[in-house]
Amino acid sequence: MNPLIHELFQKSRFLSQEANNTLKKHNLFASQWSVLYCIQRHKEMTLTQIWRYLNVEAPTITRTVNRLAELGWIEICSGKDRREKVVKLSQQALEQFPVINSAMMEFEDRMVVGLTDEEEKQLLKLLQKIR
């Protein structure tokens, strides 16, 4: 295995675990937060838009969205036709989003504390080159 890919896998798992630890007090997981954050940025989205944006399989997004709806984080509405589902944040999510987002921003700052601003920009550019 390429040592770079191995390190990326290791860091990805570490980041997911640490994000889950940060989100635990809000009764969320990193995968759920990704969906909430995505919806918040776009105001409302169809399920198709979400799975394409997050590069996650459709059934996974459907399960996550349904669970978030059960927990009261999002509202699911009908789209242009019967099959299309549009989701948006619930009032509960809108009220709690700033607190959770702040906790996640602190988490992100902790994760890159060892990098200079220039190194962070360089790493981002390099990761974007991976196909």
Helices and strands, with pairings:
Blueprint: H1 3-23, H2 30-42, E1 44-46, H3 47-54, H4 58-70, E2 74-78, E3 85-89, H5 91-111, H6 117-129
General description of the model:
With 131 residues, this protein is mainly alpha-helical. It has one domain (23-129): Arc Repressor Mutant, subunit A, CATH 1.10.10. The protein is built from six helices and three strands, in the order ααβααββαα. It has helices spanning 3-23, 30-42, 47-54, 58-70, 91-111, 117-129, and strands at 44-46, 74-78, 85-89. A three-stranded antiparallel β-sheet has the order 1-3-2. Helix 1 (3-23) packs across helix 5 (91-111) and helix 3 (47-54) packs across helix 4. The longest helix is centred in the N-terminal third of the chain and has 21 residues, at 3-23. The two termini are 17 Å apart.
Summarize this entry quickly.
The chain has a 3-stranded antiparallel β-sheet. It has 131 residues and is mainly alpha-helical. 68% of the residues lie in helices and 10% in strands.
What characteristics describe this protein?
Arc Repressor Mutant, subunit A, globular, 68% helix, 131 residues, mainly alpha
CATH topology: Arc Repressor Mutant, subunit A
CATH class: Mainly Alpha
What's the rounded overall pLDDT mean? Answer: 94
So, CATH architecture?
Answer: Orthogonal Bundle
In percent, how much strand structure appears in the residues?
Answer: 5-15%
Largest sheet: 3 strands, antiparallel
CA distance, first residue to last residue: 17 Å
How much helix is in the residues?
55-70%
Structural class: mainly alpha
Low-confidence stretches: none
Helix run count: 6
In order across it, which strands form the biggest sheet?
A: 1-3-2
CATH level 4 superfamily: Winged helix-like DNA-binding domain superfamily/Winged helix DNA-binding domain
Rg (C-alpha, Å) = 16 Å
